[in-house]
Amino acid sequence: NVLILDFGSQYTQLIARRVRELNIFCEIFPYNHIPGDLSSYKAVILSGSPFSVRSEDAPHPDLSQIRGKMPLLAVCYGAQYLAHFSGGEVAPSNIREYGRANLSFVKDDELFFDEVALNSQVWMSHSDTIKQMPTNGIRLASTKDVENAAYRIEGETTYAIQFHPEVYHSTDGKQMLENFLVKIAEVPQTFTPKAFVEEIVEEMQQKIKGDKVVLGLSGGVDSTVAAVLLNKAIGENLYCIFVNNGLLRKNEFENVLEQYKGMGLNVKGVDASARFLNELAGIEDPELKRKTIGRVFIEVFDDEAHLIEDVKWLAQGTIYPDVIESVSVKGPSATIKSHHNVGGLPDYMKLQIVEPLRMLFKDEVRRVGATLGISPDLLGRHPFPGPGLSIRILGDITPEKVQILQDVDAIFIEGLKAHGLYDKVWQAGAILLPVNSVGVMGDERTYEKVVALRAVESTDGMTADWVHLPYDFLMKISNEIINKVKGVNRVVYDISSKPPATIEWE
Ligand code: XMP
């Protein structure tokens, strides 16, 4: 187990992902919440930071329990921090040091630089520079502009690097992380999806014992993997509820329910479409739509959960990025949209929470899912927002509009699959616009709806770019939509990136 101390760098999660790719488990803690008991950690990594060590409000944690006592790798700000407080000197640099640079080795460190190329490319992102190394520092490498690009400390297993080994553009970055963790710190590489499954199943069994657990399935990857894991751990004591809010994709409720049953899950499908659509009638404001759906979902879920006698636990598909976000250095980042997921159940339900995926990143959830035998089809599904099609129908929602959008969306998504494009796209869908436009069909003038198609590439939904779908494909889909879906006479394609445009239109 490796501890990553976060000083607020945008790359901290990336360090964790690289470490996990080496089959080594790691946890991120904010610099001001260092765990009291460090005995289970075999190495510590200090992250970068947007701060300057010289600033008063910069993170200045006490590392006396760590430094010199266990292997330590200090990255960027971490490297400056070690220098600044241990007899070295950090100063603003004359040249801004951003982007690529090449390492030249000053002193051959056989372990740290093992299998690292001469002149290896590394990625820099800092405005301060280490003018003088800390006491007992031994310079290992420099670049053209940075004299102290890597150093270690005599008599300790402490290494410090000014560049970011975690980013893709540091060509041998992962190798250096591996060298530090495996060759120097001798951390075992035992964190595999299979090992995770074995461990978590046992942990869940011990925690839950013979109690009953209720879980809300959404058809998405996280809740599905959480359900299959719990099913493996506690079998029939897991009660899954899958709510149809009337805003799912075409036939999604029936299809997914079928799939779940085929996986041996104890799942109850609850069709509450009419209730949701009733409550949403006349609402145009996107946030009010989200709040209404969130509230009705909780009511429906609560009613259903009450039918299960003596239920003690609520299981959720929370994953690691949500956990880090809620304890991060900066606190949860500003809410741009109020994302509704299960969460926030009424107090009187008094259920204890169990979150089997809370230590995993999304790609790890997928790998665990694959280990559990969940179909690639289900694991590769595009993300779909909790409020569903409600936020893709601009303006008020009616059952007719939902049906039109479901038909359009189905043609688009099926088309992407048929043309081998589905897996190249991170997320896709259609949006029903609140405007009519003039068209001509046969000899008749029409005045009907416009739909927009959106397909984006992304890795985490935080930033995204529109996908350059082939014109031929767009032509076919547009034709099919206009010919088959009554009430639509115009199709447009959204060519906006995020930022500034969000993925969803509402
Ligand atoms: P935006 O539109 O903010 O979307 O660029 C980023 C990702 O989040 C999804 N999204 C939501 N998911 N409830 C959800 O569960 C929501 O209210 C919500 N709004 C957006 C969106 O589909 C994309 O994947």
UniProtKB/TrEMBL annotation:
<feature type="domain" description="GMPS ATP-PPase">
    <location>
        <begin position="191"/>
        <end position="381"/>
    </location>
</feature>
<keyword id="KW-0067">ATP-binding</keyword>
<dbReference type="InterPro" id="IPR029062">
    <property type="entry name" value="Class_I_gatase-like"/>
</dbReference>
<keyword id="KW-0436">Ligase</keyword>
<dbReference type="InterPro" id="IPR017926">
    <property type="entry name" value="GATASE"/>
</dbReference>
<dbReference type="Pfam" id="PF00117">
    <property type="entry name" value="GATase"/>
</dbReference>
<keyword id="KW-0547">Nucleotide-binding</keyword>
<feature type="binding site">
    <location>
        <begin position="218"/>
        <end position="224"/>
    </location>
    <ligand>
        <name>ATP</name>
    </ligand>
</feature>
<dbReference type="InterPro" id="IPR004739">
    <property type="entry name" value="GMP_synth_GATase"/>
</dbReference>
<dbReference type="InterPro" id="IPR014729">
    <property type="entry name" value="Rossmann-like_a/b/a_fold"/>
</dbReference>
<feature type="active site" description="Nucleophile">
    <location>
        <position position="76"/>
    </location>
</feature>
<dbReference type="GO" id="GO:0003922">
    <property type="term" value="F:GMP synthase (glutamine-hydrolyzing) activity"/>
</dbReference>
<dbReference type="InterPro" id="IPR022955">
    <property type="entry name" value="GMP_synthase"/>
</dbReference>
<feature type="active site">
    <location>
        <position position="166"/>
    </location>
</feature>
<dbReference type="InterPro" id="IPR001674">
    <property type="entry name" value="GMP_synth_C"/>
</dbReference>
<comment type="pathway">
    <text>Purine metabolism; GMP biosynthesis; GMP from XMP (L-Gln route): step 1/1.</text>
</comment>
<dbReference type="InterPro" id="IPR025777">
    <property type="entry name" value="GMPS_ATP_PPase_dom"/>
</dbReference>
<feature type="active site">
    <location>
        <position position="164"/>
    </location>
</feature>
<keyword id="KW-0315">Glutamine amidotransferase</keyword>
<keyword id="KW-0658">Purine biosynthesis</keyword>
<comment type="subunit">
    <text>Homodimer.</text>
</comment>
<dbReference type="Pfam" id="PF00958">
    <property type="entry name" value="GMP_synt_C"/>
</dbReference>
<protein>
    <recommendedName>
        <fullName>GMP synthase [glutamine-hydrolyzing]</fullName>
        <ecNumber>6.3.5.2</ecNumber>
    </recommendedName>
</protein>
<keyword id="KW-0332">GMP biosynthesis</keyword>
<comment type="function">
    <text>Catalyzes the synthesis of GMP from XMP.</text>
</comment>
<dbReference type="Pfam" id="PF02540">
    <property type="entry name" value="NAD_synthase"/>
</dbReference>
<dbReference type="InterPro" id="IPR022310">
    <property type="entry name" value="NAD/GMP_synthase"/>
</dbReference>
